[in-house]
Write a structure and sequence with these properties.
The complex is a heterodimer of chains A (about 650) and B (about 325). Chain A contains 18 helices and 20 strands. By secondary structure, chain A is of the alpha+beta class. Chain A has 4 domains: about 140 residues, no CATH class; about 325 residues, C8orf32 fold, CATH 3.10.620; about 25 residues; about 90 residues, no CATH class. In chain A, helix 5 crosses helix 13. Chain B has about 325 residues and is α+β, with helices and mostly antiparallel strands. Chain B folds into 3 domains: about 90 residues, Immunoglobulin-like, CATH 2.60.40; about 120 residues, no CATH class; about 35 residues, no CATH class. Helix content of chain B is about 25%, strand content about 30%. In chain B, helix 1 packs antiparallel against helix 2 and helix 5 packs antiparallel against helix 6. Classes of the chains: A alpha+beta (about 650), B alpha+beta (about 325).
Chain lengths: ~650, ~325
């Protein structure tokens, strides 16, 4: 359809299409309950896409194109908000290229609407040239965009009022509030830690810590399967559950009877333990889109206070951990709002004097120890001899572990009947997070400091483009939590730094980008030799391309007849000064016009035209004198064209 | 602007939703604005302009100016300011009441008709290039003073004090007698530029080895000296006087008068015969305020004299 035509039939069809789209939207909206305003997002976006599509079929004016581009940008914004994966990058790239091509063509069309300078008018916008300009513009936008992106500040807070929460499929778990972990296979609901054999049968991404018991003697780590993404403004440890009881080898949960917490149709408010409100707190909003079916633990930065969850109720354990009553499969999304206390080392050092200490029952629970070898206690006392505060004691033990033990996944099996912490601290001195974390907890408990072992995930790598933390199965982790009066539980980890909420500052998107590229540099370096070979080949091909074209051009030039060669030289001279021969122009007309502008008299131009016509179409061949005369006149045109060009 | 506003709005959404892809989208929007703003500036700087025009023009009559632009392939708008337009004053209206603006994709060459605003010798023209290439979002304008290959002499717009009487009418016959066609030679003299070729006296030329022309007695053909004295006047009045003088010159030439023009030019006073409208226009284009020529150099002949002067309120008749 031509845009200048009236296109009445098309307009009528498009109007009908828009009405149909609107009717479909209304029918969907009528099924949404009045409280589910957030569910309008997708139908609205769909309606917008239909209108956008139908409108793009009839764009009579340039402002319509601009409207189309603006509305497509709005749609991309909606998609960017909802998108969590890198696939969005492909859509963004395609949209960007087409939008740039539209702008290029629109501007060409704008210029073409003005009376042209050339006679005959220049043909605007060949496909090849438009593609070339669009490609160059895209390249420039990418390079400048990377620079702009590097200096954009990461957003530090999320303040929306409605957060995503969805379930692909509602599968109710048989035991309300009980722990279920399908990724561990048949042992999932056995109420005990899996054995080494059972662990081998579990999913590759299954972590043995997400069970009711944790056996520190087990070996084996999950693979790099992406288990979930986390959209959060700052890094934190995504906590699953804690263990309170240590028997020398296994950790277990003694208080495994969770309370049901209901949201009554809205967000679910989770009771928080009392804390000293004299220092600052802030909210950390985390949205978790799950990628695989894992445990029904609701991961959250400590301490969760509000939950946007696709179910009416969840279950809270006495330690504050949350569990779902439904299976959390791939595609499930929930959002947690956590209260983060702005703690710093200075605050933690002063915490011993704060009120709101731990209650006696909890103190007994979290300082519980079986009969442990005395040398563990002595080691803890020796290491913390000079420490004056709980915080300093924790740091002293953490530093000692970092200095004197090695993180290793390749460790010998734990001999039967031995204390796992004793074996790790005094025999192996090698181990992974379960041994290291357990050692810290046991040593702290031996000093009378309430502590517990927590399992969950480290923050994962932040994707610089989606801005989301990508949490892989191998990020499953165990660390220690220590009680501080007035503050509550605070995480510590000798093998990885637990981010303190009070020390997190603003960062730039470019920082993530650098880290992301840096993390992949070894892989990229491996590709370097291949890249160099490809670049060399491309360079050689390009180098050969130019002489080959010249050679082929000369050959074809030699094959041409004399008048064709002469005309080609004249056309070439014309092109050099921006005067191209129009398809409808005869050779004498072109020579006459070009000659007038290039210091050739009308008579000479006419003579040259006559000789060329005679040579091309005359019965008798032109003589040598005529040829020489024609050559001399062409030389004048070429000389003046070159001189003009060099003047410019 | 709308793209930057969109980027700002998107950042607001990014701050409330924490969506990382929005930061990428913002970066793309800002990058598009930067590329759209920088590209036309860069492209316009690389364009080379060449202008050419016919040697003669008249105020108020379209002058076809040939503009050639070379450089990287750039869509742009081309405009040529009318000669005589004061700097800083934009003149969009061109010939025939339409805009003189033309669209072009460089390299391009074509003609733009412009209306000269005032008489004079034009050696440069102001060419305006406007481009927003390639994305059409941010426009840049580049003004170039391009030197003409040959200067153009712009004649004043002819102004007629009275409507000319129709040819052959009684009133017209009373004004000037038409040339009789049988002039009598009363001697020969050296050729001066402006003498009609038909007056060349070939035998005398052969003898003297120099161009000689016949001095003719034209009892039926009056001569006239038009004196344009621009001393002590402002630009507007000088323009008006030149227009009036040009109108008189045209009328005189149409009536077959042997016309002489006395003007002051930058090189000094000038007195000479003009036999065509073009020649008269060129002389008047170059007329400036200055000392007037000595008419006694014309010798014993005493043609009629008409002074158009801006130093007195009305022009003086002989």
């Amino acid at each position: 359809m031509r845009r200048h035509d009236r296109n009445i039939l098309l307009k009528a069809l498009l109007a009908f299409g828009v009405l149909l789209a609107f009717a479909r939207f209304l029918s969907i909206v009528s099924t949404i309950p009045s409280t589910g305003a957030a569910q309008l997002q997708v139908p609205l976006a769909e309606l917008f896409i239909w209108v956008q599509f139908l409108h793009s079929l009839d764009v009579p004016a340039r402002r319509d194109l601009m409207f189309s581009l603006s509305s497509s940008t709005a749609l991309m914004i909606v998609a960017a908000v909802l998108s969590v994966s890198m696939k969005f990058g492909l859509f963004l790239a395609a949209w960007g290229i087409f939008a740039l091509a539209s702008l290029v063509l629109s501007y060409r069309s704008e210029i073409a609407d003005v009376p042209g300078l050339d006679e005959p008018p220049t043909r605007y916008g060949s496909f090849a040239h438009t593609s070339k300009v669009t490609a160059l513009a895209s390249l420039a936008v990418i390079l400048v965009g990377i620079l702009v992106f590097a200096f954009l500040p990461r957003t530090q807070a999320m303040t929306t009022f409605s957060f995503p929460a969805a379930l692909q499929q509602v599968v109710r778990l048989p035991s309300e509030g009980g722990l279920a972990n399908p990724s561990l296979g048949p042992v999932a609901d056995a109420g005990r830690a899996p054995t080494q054999t059972e662990l081998g049968k579990s999913a590759r991404f299954g972590y043995f810590g997400f069970a009711r018991e944790l056996d520190t003697g087990l070996r084996g780590r999950p693979d790099d399967t992406l288990v979930m993404r986390v959209r959060a403004s700052e890094a934190a440890f995504w906590r699953g559950q804690s263990f309170d009881r240590w028997d020398g080898r296994n950790w277990s949960v003694t208080r495994d009877r969770p309370d049901r917490v209901s949201g009554q149709g809205g967000p679910i408010d989770v009771p928080l333990a009392p804390y000293d409100t004299s220092f600052g707190t802030r909210q950390l909003v985390q949205t978790y889109p799950l990628e695989v079916t894992g445990p029904n633990m609701i991961f959250a930065a400590y301490a969760p206070e509000r939950l946007y969850f696709p179910d009416n109720a969840v279950f809270q354990l006495p330690d504050g951990s949350l569990r779902a009553g439904v299976e959390l499969g791939a595609g499930a999304v929930y959002t947690v709002v956590s209260t983060r206390k702005d703690v710093t080392p200075a605050i933690l050092r002063k915490a011993d004097s704060l009120p709101l200490g731990i209650d006696p029952t909890s103190r007994a629970l979290y300082t519980q120890l079986p009969k442990i070898p005395e040398r563990i206690r002595k080691l803890a006392e020796t290491v913390t001899a000079t420490a004056t505060s709980t915080y300093d004691k924790v740091i002293a033990l953490q530093d000692w572990l970092a200095r004197n033990t090695t993180y290793s996944l390749d460790i010998p099996s734990l001999p039967e009947g031995t204390d796992a912490v004793d074996q790790f601290l005094f025999v192996d001195r090698r181990g992974f997070c379960e041994q290291i974390g357990s050692s810290l907890v046991v040593m702290l408990r031996s000093l009378g400091i309430p502590a517990r072992l927590v399992v969950g995930y480290v923050p994962g790598e932040r994707n610089p483009l989606s801005g989301m933390f990508e949490v892989r199965a191998s990020d499953a982790h165990a660390w220690a939590e220590v009680w501080f009066p007035g503050i509550g539980w605070q995480g510590f980890d000798p093998t990885a730094e637990v981010p303190l909420a009070g020390e997190q500052g603003a960062d730039l998107a470019g920082g993530d980008l650098l880290a992301w590229v840096g993390g992949r540099l070894p892989g990229l370096l491996r590709l370097l030799p291949t890249g160099l070979v490809v670049a060399c080949l491309a360079f050689v091909t390009w180098g050969l391309h130019v002489p080959a074209r010249r050679l082929l051009g000369r050959r074809s030039f030699r094959r041409r007849t004399w008048p064709a060669q002469i005309l080609s030289r004249i056309e070439s001279a014309g092109r050099r000064v921006g005067r191209t021969r129009a398809p409808s122009e005869t050779a004498p007309e072109f020579i006459s016009d070009l000659g007038r502008k290039r210091d050739l008299s009308d008579e000479d131009a006419r003579e040259l035209g006559v000789i060329l016509e005679a040579a091309s179409f005359g019965r008798a061949p032109v003589n040598d004198a005529q040829r020489q005369r024609a050559e001399a006149l062409v030389a004048i045109i070429e000389r003046t064209s070159s001189a003009r060009r060099s003047d410019e | 602007m709308w793209l930057l506003a969109l980027a700002a709005g998107t950042f607001g959404i990014a701050a409330t939703t924490g969506a990382g892809w929005l930061l990428v989208l913002i970066a793309v929007c800002v990058a598009v604005v930067i590329v759209a703003a920088v590209s036309p500036w860069f492209l316009l700087r690389r364009l080379r302009i060449q202008v050419d025009a016919p040697p003669d023009g008249t105020v108020g009559e379209p002058l076809p100016v040939t503009v050639g632009i070379t450089g990287p392939r750039t869509p742009c708008l081309v405009d040529v300011l009318s000669p005589g337009t004061p700097p800083g004053k934009r003149q969009d209206r061109g010939a025939r009441g339409g805009t003189s603006r033309r669209g072009a994709v460089v390299p391009a060459e074509g003609t733009i008709p412009v209306d000269p605003a005032s008489r004079g010798a034009v050696t440069t023209l102001t060419v305006i290039l406007v481009s927003a290439a390639p994305l059409g979002l941010v426009r840049w304008r580049r003004t170039v003073r391009a030197t003409l290959r040959n200067p153009v002499l712009i004649a004043p717009k002819p102004s007629f004090a009275d409507p000319p009487p129709p040819a052959g009418s009684e009133a017209r016959q009373g004004l000037w007698e038409p040339a009789s066609g049988y002039d009598l030679a009363r001697g020969v003299r050296e050729y001066v530029p402006g003498d009609p070729p038909k007056l060349i006296h070939w035998p005398a030329t052969a003898r003297m080895r120099n161009l000689m022309v016949k001095e003719v007695e034209t009892p039926g053909r009056p001569s006239l000296v038009l004196v344009l004295d621009l001393r002590g006047c402002d630009e507007a009045r000088a323009e008006k006087a030149a227009s009036l003088c040009f109108g008189l010159a045209i009328r005189s030439l149409e009536d077959g008068v042997d016309l002489f023009l006395a003007t002051a030019e930058l090189d000094g006073p000038r007195l000479g015969r003009v036999s065509t409208r073009t020649a008269a226009g060129r002389r008047l284009a170059l007329a400036v305020e200055g000392p007037m020529p000595d008419e006694s150099a014309m010798g014993p002949r005493q043609p009629d004299r008409l002074v158009v002067s801006t130093s007195v309120p009305e022009h003086a008749a002989p």
